[in-house]
Design a protein that fits this description.
Elements: E1 2-7, H1 12-21, E2 26-29, H2 40-52, E3 58-63, H3 67-74, E4 81-83, H4 87-95, E5 101-105, H5 111-122, H6 130-143
Parallel strand pairs: 1-2, 1-3, 3-5, 4-5
Helix pairs in contact: 2-3, 4-5
Length: about 140
């Protein structure tokens, strides 16, 4: 699976740990490249656009609280980003919402927990059915069709 990965400075340390957890996948790191101050929209938009365009299958974005990256990613048409703090929430984001971007809180998520969240998120399928009807409503709002 092709995964877009990005963070700001507050998520940099966790992003680097996550890279090692994703060694069975093709990862494109969209930055940032250090813990020097950076703005989450800079890397977040590029990574989300890579998922929306199909260049990457899914994305993982990390900032201090996860809120900024969630806002940024969800501004990109076709992205359904979910800020997840537990494996259960990560699973539900896939089953019910078909989330294609996972957002983590770098300042509040231990790397071992991030690993469990990511594992669940990557291995959980979308259930479709009544949930697809809801996704279709989101698409209609995005496209105006």
């Amino acid at each position: 699976m092709k995964i877009a990965l990005a963070s700001d400075h507050a998520g940099f340390e966790l992003k680097e740990a996550v890279k090692h957890l994703l060694n069975d996948h093709e990862v494109t790191d969209f930055g940032t490249d250090s813990s020097a101050p950076s703005d989450y929209p800079d890397a977040g938009f590029i990574a989300a656009q890579a998922v929306a365009s199909g260049r990457c299958d899914r994305g993982i974005l990390i900032c201090g609280s996860g809120i900024g990256m969630s806002i940024v990613a969800n501004k990109v048409r076709g992205i359904r980003a979910a800020l997840c703090h537990t494996p259960l929430i990560a699973g539900l984001s896939r089953k019910h919402n078909n989330a294609n971007v996972l957002v983590l809180a770098g300042r509040f998520t231990a790397s071992w927990l991030a690993g469990e969240i990511i594992k669940t998120w990557l291995n959980t399928d979308f259930e479709g059915g009544r949930h697809q009807l809801r996704i279709d409503k989101i698409k209609e709002e995005e496209t105006g069709v």
